[in-house]
Design brief:
Layout (H helix, E strand, L loop, with lengths): L2 H19 L2 H15 L7 H23 L11 H12 L4 H26 L3 H53 L6 H8 L6 E8 L7 H12 L5 E4 L4 E7 L11 H4 L1 H4 L3 E4 L3 E2 H22 L6 E3 H10 L3 H12 L7 H15 L4 H8 L3 H15 L7 H14 L8
Parallel strand pairs: 4-6
Antiparallel strand pairs: 1-3, 1-4, 1-5, 2-3
Helix pairs in contact: 1-3, 1-6, 2-3, 2-5, 3-4, 4-6, 5-6, 11-12, 12-17, 13-17, 14-15, 14-16, 14-17, 15-16
């Protein structure tokens, strides 16, 4: 293109820009109607409509003034009303794509306005075309820059709000777990979680990263309760969760591994018992945390699903490990050793006690002959130094604790 022809287009464009600047208010009103007709999210939101009008007006004035005075697009800054419009969109939960539609459609409006009006301002079709090209090129670059700036502000506002929401949520969770008095209505609103009815707390944890732990925890929560679980991160490798239990009674955890086979191969899950109300929120969580402690003390390598009810006795006895070791040593004597023979004898004795003295039932449980069970029970009694009929309750408790925690509660060699 002849440089003089380009210059003619630029000169004519500055004249057009000057003419449009005199009518910015009318143009902004017209652009607002154009956008409202095409973006239903504006709807009846008076504040958003007002910010949209302000953004239209300030952006039109900025782009036309910059073109008129030959100011490089790189110097453009997003108008205050445009930034506030982006923050309002984030606050209302509209997506960034919806927010950017205002700019794409605003550019479309501006292009159509230029195409319809240039022939009325410039008689020479060639000059009119060059003028249109100059204005359109500048307008596109302006919108490209401004849309990037407002998108960044949208993301920053979203982050601020999410961080604030997370801080508010964590504060409510802390207060509930500390047993402080809380406004239940506000707490439910902040947590998006119902505190009425039975609460079930659970803890999910992994050894290594690479598992969608939060996603798995939400699956668990929906399985346990009403479909709106609360999930809170506890560092990078664990999450706490709560669910409002269904009314139909106990929840079967046996199906959980089958329903989520992939994650359940990597994730440990500890589940508290259901407890009512805000106080139950704390109680069930503490049970889940204590269940996790029992699982970790047991040294289990493979991920598992463990309910508090299954380890409540172990938790009670082993709350203080030194006391638990003393209790086990006192009840089991030489049977409290971490050897293969002692483990087999303890297992046989526990199976017999669980079966209320039936050697046949114990043999079936262990998968061995009942004579073998009898021999192991006799050796166990010898190591213990007294018959299994002496202090049966204490003996049974010590064997259960050993069966779960193993070397953690056996005396040091």
């Amino acid at each position: 293109m002849d440089p003089r022809e380009s210059a003619d287009g630029a000169v004519a464009g500055r004249g057009v820009a000057a003419s449009l600047l005199g009518d910015v208010s009318s143009l902004a009103d017209d652009m607002l109607h154009y956008l409202v007709d095409r973006i239903p999210e504006v709807g009846g939101d008076a504040e958003l409509r007002g910010l949209t009008l302000g953004s239209c007006s300030s952006n039109l004035e900025a782009v036309l003034s910059m073109f008129r005075h030959g100011i490089d697009v790189a110097a453009a800054e997003a108008p205050v009303t445009a930034l506030e419009h982006a923050r309002a969109m984030a606050a209302r939960g509209h997506s960034v794509d919806v927010m950017l539609r205002f700019y794409r459609l605003g550019h479309e409006y501006f292009t159509e306005k230029l195409a319809d009006s240039l022939v009325n301002w410039i008689d020479d079709p060639a000059v009119a075309l060059r003028t249109f090209a100059e204005l359109e090129r500048f307008g596109f670059r302006y919108i490209d820059r401004i849309s990037s700036l407002v998108a960044a502000e949208y993301v920053a506002e979203l982050d601020r709000r999410q961080n604030q929401a997370r801080a508010d949520r964590d504060d409510v969770v802390r207060a509930l777990l500390a047993g402080e008095r809380v406004d239940s209505a506000r707490a439910e609103r902040v947590l998006s979680h119902r505190l009425t009815g039975r609460q079930i707390g659970f803890v999910c944890w992994v050894k290594d990263r690479g598992v969608d732990l939060e996603g798995f925890a939400k699956h668990v929560g929906r399985h346990l309760g009403d479909g709106h679980p609360l999930v809170v991160a506890d560092g990078p490798l664990a999450v706490w969760g709560w669910s409002s239990a269904r009314d139909e009674g106990a929840v079967s955890l046996a199906r959980l591994a089958a329903e989520f086979p992939g994650p359940s191969e990597h994730v440990h899950l500890a589940v508290g018992s259901p407890h009512p109300g805000a106080a139950g929120f704390r109680a069930t969580h503490l049970e889940a945390v204590r269940t996790r402690r029992v699982v970790e003390l047991s040294g289990r390598g493979a991920p598992s699903i463990t309910e508090f009810g299954d380890v409540a006795l172990v938790d009670a006895v082993a709350r203080d490990l030194d006391t638990a070791r003393s209790f086990v040593a006192a009840q089991l004597g030489d049977l409290a050793r971490d050897g293969a023979k002692e483990r087999g004898e303890r297992a046989a004795l526990l199976a017999v006690l669980d079966a209320q003295g039936s050697l046949t039932a114990a043999a079936r449980t262990l998968g061995i002959h009942k004579n073998t069970v009898l021999q192991r029970v006799r050796r166990a009694e010898e190591r213990r130094g007294r018959p299994a009929t002496v202090k049966v309750a204490e003996l049974h408790a010590a064997l259960v604790v050993c069966g779960v925690l193993g070397a953690s509660v056996l005396p040091e060699a």
